């Protein structure tokens, strides 16, 4: 399989069997060869200038032309050699300061020495990668903000977490990594099914997915009001959801379980579900299946498959609904493109008291509203609206300075802790709200009111 | 309760967090027969705490009330007794992610200090991982051991009282990650390397001064670490407030009919997200930064052992 990455192309075949972290060179024909430890010749004292006052940038200092360089490449000359050639054919190289020479060599090496290092995926790597390359897919959630969420949310092995995200499954994957396969996760999803493209990039063992459940947002209201049923689930979007999951290689277990039940009639399987309001629906399905059994055998098998799938889905949904109904989740993580307020107000109902929750939003204003609504609702303390600033540094002898500031682009977090909700007394929740605000003496000069 | 597992009810021997109000809380050791004084009155452990659900409201003798919270490493960090300057959750969060800590990780740390980071690491590596923490101050090492015992996590951590620069961490070739928060981290890089597993281990050094960082980066390079990267992270907190700004009096035009332009005293002025009050003010909701924010804690340098 050909990989194209930043103007390089290569085949991964030779990489198999090597330890993670190995660096490879891309040789002619696109094959990877482990990089040999080259002799460091840079330690020799080279000729260098003191400053750039006499260096004129006229674009003519490199004597090799595009074609010359291409010819070298085609000959199969190693990247290191090409860089050496470029240095030798540069009229200004020896006038540059040592620092400038270093910088020049680094730049050319990056371009011509095609070195690929293969690393094991982790939250660190995937979150920095997604933020750098596809920030739109993750609502511009910067990796340090994600790091805060995982810690503020006390994400750890054994928790029962509720996760609602539209970040391609990156946040879900990060939560799964920190839970190590222990505990359980219920992923709430909009539309037909959860997107877990990024989750599959983590390379988790299959067992991690045993306790990963999902539940459609469209059913949350009915679940909260006690009118939940699986009847109105249409089969089409779920087929799409299954197809999505298949492309991520997650349906292996589902397919094997379907093969196991082959031969069992669906009527028998249907009878196994007791104490559900879906009993009637299942009976009707069984009757339908009996009708179809009179038609072509192939047709019958197809339909049985479909029914079985639907039945599996509904069974899972019921199980997940039951988990939610316990209202004892250990935490809530929200990171989506949707306005957070209604999500929070609804999903917090499923969380036990004295548990943390964290909401991410690309923008600050929706979280202001969220904060206000939460104060009105009561049952939450330690509300905090925050963002983090991240600054990378270049640390080199005599050349240390900040590299770039990424403040302002990473999104905002609203976090808090649940407490037992005093539903009967609205007075006390007002008092609570006042108690939770900063005392007036600490406020700034501008005249303001409690919100 | 446990620092590595949630419990529902408050039990005798638990460490619980008493929450009084905005940023006002303290830890308490729950014990039969004990009372705790608060500004709202007395809390009697036997009747008010033991057997109650975490997250409950407890009314104190004077009539005021508090919330009792389940401890977490984050709450502990905000409330622990300081024996040294500590790391706060902002730095701890990025350290945890950049060191790729997760259940099962083996971590080495020095110095233990007040145990702020230690508790967070223990929480993350539980139930199969382990923290080897080294502290050269004898009393601090002992206090840390005591706290880990009280918090029910002693099976996940080993405290060693020695100088990491001279004697290392006490383990070799097994650590997934090493963390250094000491005055001269460059002196411990060699020991860090030997404690780390053969390939792919991560290291982090925390230093307040850039000179320390420079020396540490050089040492890391000399010892063959790769992917050396230095960063700093700062937390900005916002207070949610409804702000009211007065509209200035710009006087009136010569004619009496002032129907053109912005009429500040017209209460039905639509089209703006803010509402006008009768006295000529505009109200809006804002996330107001705190007057002072933390400007610097320390530089974090990460690298990989290759």
TrEMBL record, chain A:
Residues 236-247 have a biased composition (Acidic residues). GO terms for biological process: tRNA methylation. Residues 29-59, 230-283 are annotated as: Disordered. Keywords: Coiled coil, Methyltransferase, Nucleus, Transferase, tRNA processing. One of its GO terms (cellular component) is tRNA (m1A) methyltransferase complex. It holds the Pfam family Gcd10p. It is found in: Nucleus. GO terms for molecular function: methyltransferase activity. Residues 36-59 have a biased composition (Basic and acidic residues). Residues 256-274 have a biased composition (Polar residues). Residues 286-314 form a coiled coil. Its main location: nucleus. PANTHER family: TRANSLATION INITIATION FACTOR EIF3-RELATED (PTHR12945), TRNA (ADENINE(58)-N(1))-METHYLTRANSFERASE NON-CATALYTIC SUBUNIT TRM6 (PTHR12945:SF0). Belongs to the TRM6/GCD10 family. This is tRNA (adenine(58)-N(1))-methyltransferase non-catalytic subunit TRM6. It comes from Amazona guildingii. The lineage of its organism: Eukaryota, Metazoa, Chordata, Craniata, Vertebrata. The gene is Trmt6.
TrEMBL record, chain B:
Its EC number is 2.1.1.220. S-adenosyl-L-methionine binds at residues 114-117, 135, 163, 181. Residues 256-276 are annotated as: Disordered. It comes from the Eukaryota. One of its GO terms (cellular component) is tRNA (m1A) methyltransferase complex. Keywords: Acetylation, Methyltransferase, Nucleus, S-adenosyl-L-methionine, Transferase, tRNA processing. InterPro entries: SAM-dependent_MTases_sf (IPR029063), TRM61_C (IPR049470), tRNA_MeTrfase_Gcd14 (IPR014816). GO terms for molecular function: tRNA (adenine(58)-N1)-methyltransferase activity. Residues 64-305 form the tRNA (adenine(58)-N(1))-methyltransferase catalytic subunit TRM61 C-terminal domain. The keyword Nucleotide-binding does not apply. It catalyses: an adenosine in mRNA + S-adenosyl-L-methionine = an N(1)-methyladenosine in mRNA + S-adenosyl-L-homocysteine + H(+). One of its GO terms (biological process) is tRNA methylation. It is found in: Nucleus. Its main location: nucleus. Heterotetramer; composed of two copies of TRMT6 and two copies of TRMT61A. Catalytic subunit of tRNA (adenine-N(1)-)-methyltransferase, which catalyzes the formation of N(1)-methyladenine at position 58 (m1A58) in initiator methionyl-tRNA. Catalytic subunit of mRNA N(1)-methyltransferase complex, which mediates methylation of adenosine residues at the N(1) position of a small subset of mRNAs: N(1) methylation takes place in tRNA T-loop-like structures of mRNAs and is only present at low stoichiometries. This is tRNA (adenine(58)-N(1))-methyltransferase catalytic subunit TRMT61A.
């Amino acid at each position: 399989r050909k990989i194209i990455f930043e103007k390089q192309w290569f085949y991964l075949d030779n990489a198999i069997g090597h330890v993670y972290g190995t660096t490879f060179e891309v040789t002619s024909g696109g094959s990877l060869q482990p990089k040999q430890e080259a002799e460091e010749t840079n330690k020799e004292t080279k000729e260098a200038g003191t400053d750039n006052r006499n260096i004129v940038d006229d674009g003519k200092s490199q004597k090799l032309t595009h074609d010359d360089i291409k010819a070298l490449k085609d000959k199969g000359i190693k990247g290191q050699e090409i860089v050496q050639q470029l240095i030798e054919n540069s009229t200004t190289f020896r006038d540059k300061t040592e620092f400038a020479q270093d910088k020049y060599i680094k730049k050319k090496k990056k371009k011509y020495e095609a070195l690929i290092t293969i690393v094991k995926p982790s939250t660190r790597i995937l979150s920095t990668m997604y933020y750098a390359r596809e920030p739109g897919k993750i609502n511009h959630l910067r990796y340090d903000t994600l790091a805060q969420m995982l810690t503020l949310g006390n994400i750890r092995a054994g928790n029962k977490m509720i996760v609602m995200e539209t970040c391609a499954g990156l946040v879900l994957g990060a939560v799964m990594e920190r839970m190590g396969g222990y505990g359980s996760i219920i992923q709430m999803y909009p539309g037909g099914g959860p997107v877990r493209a990024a989750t599959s990039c983590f390379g988790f063992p299959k067992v991690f997915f045993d306790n990963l459940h999902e539940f459609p947002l469209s059913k949350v209201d009915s679940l909260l009001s006690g009118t939940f049923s699986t009847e109105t689930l249409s089969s089409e979007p779920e087929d799409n959801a299954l197809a999505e999951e298949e492309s991520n290689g997650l349906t292996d277990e589902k397919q094997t379980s379907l093969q196991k039940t082959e031969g069992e009639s669906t009527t028998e399987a249907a009878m196994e579900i007791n104490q559900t309001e879906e009993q009637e629906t299942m009976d009707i399905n069984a009757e339908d299946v009996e009708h179809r059994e009179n038609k072509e055998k192939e047709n019958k098998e197809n339909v049985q498959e479909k029914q079985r799938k639907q039945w599996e889905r509904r069974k899972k949904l019921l199980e997940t609904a039951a988990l939610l109904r316990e209202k004892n989740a250990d935490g809530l993580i929200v990171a989506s493109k949707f306005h957070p307020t209604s999500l929070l107000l609804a999903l917090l109902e499923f969380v036990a008291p004295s548990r943390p929750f964290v909401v991410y939003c690309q923008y600050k204003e929706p979280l202001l509203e969220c904060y206000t609504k939460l104060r009105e609702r009561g049952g939450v303390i330690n509300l905090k609206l925050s963002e983090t600033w991240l600054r990378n540094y270049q640390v080199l002898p005599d050349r240390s300075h900040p590299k770039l500031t990424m403040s302002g682009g990473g999104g905002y977090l609203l976090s808090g802790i649940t407490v037992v909700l005093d539903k009967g007394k609205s007075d006390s929740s007002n008092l609570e709200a006042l108690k939770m605000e900063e005392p007036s003496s600490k406020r700034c000069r501008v005249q303001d009111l409690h919100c | 309760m446990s620092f590595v597992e949630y419990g529902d009810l408050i039990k005798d021997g638990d460490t619980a967090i008493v929450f009084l109000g905005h940023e006002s809380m303290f830890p308490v050791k729950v014990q039969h027969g004990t009372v705790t004084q608060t500004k709202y009155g007395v809390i009697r452990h036997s009747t008010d705490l033991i057997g109650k659900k975490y997250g409950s409201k407890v009314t104190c003798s004077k009539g005021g009330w508090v919330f009792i919270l389940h401890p977490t490493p984050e709450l502990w960090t905000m409330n622990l007794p300081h024996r040294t300057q500590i790391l706060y959750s902002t730095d701890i969060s990025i350290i945890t992610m950049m060191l790729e800590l997760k259940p099962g990780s083996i971590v080495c740390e020095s110095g233990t200090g007040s145990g702020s980071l230690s508790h967070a690491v223990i929480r993350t590596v539980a139930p199969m991982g382990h923290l080897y923490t080294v502290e050269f101050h004898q009393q601090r090492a002992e206090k840390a051991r005591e706290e880990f015992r009280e918090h029910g996590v002693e099976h996940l951590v080993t405290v060693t009282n020695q100088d990491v620069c001279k004697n290392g961490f006490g383990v070799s070739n097994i650590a997934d990650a090493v963390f250094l928060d000491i005055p001269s981290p460059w002196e411990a890089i060699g020991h860090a390397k030997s404690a780390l597993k053969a390939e792919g281990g991560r290291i982090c050094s925390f230093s307040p001064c850039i000179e320390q960082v420079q020396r540490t980066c050089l040492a890391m390079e000399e010892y063959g670490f790769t992917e050396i990267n230095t960063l700093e992270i700062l937390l900005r907190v916002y207070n949610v407030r409804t702000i009211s700004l007065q509209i200035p009096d710009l006087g009136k035009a010569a004619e009496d009919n002032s129907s053109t332009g912005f009429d500040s005293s017209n209460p039905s002025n639509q089209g703006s997200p803010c509402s006008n009050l009768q006295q000529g003010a505009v109200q809006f909701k804002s996330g107001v930064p705190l007057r002072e924010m933390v400007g610097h804690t320390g530089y974090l340098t990460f690298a990989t052992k290759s």
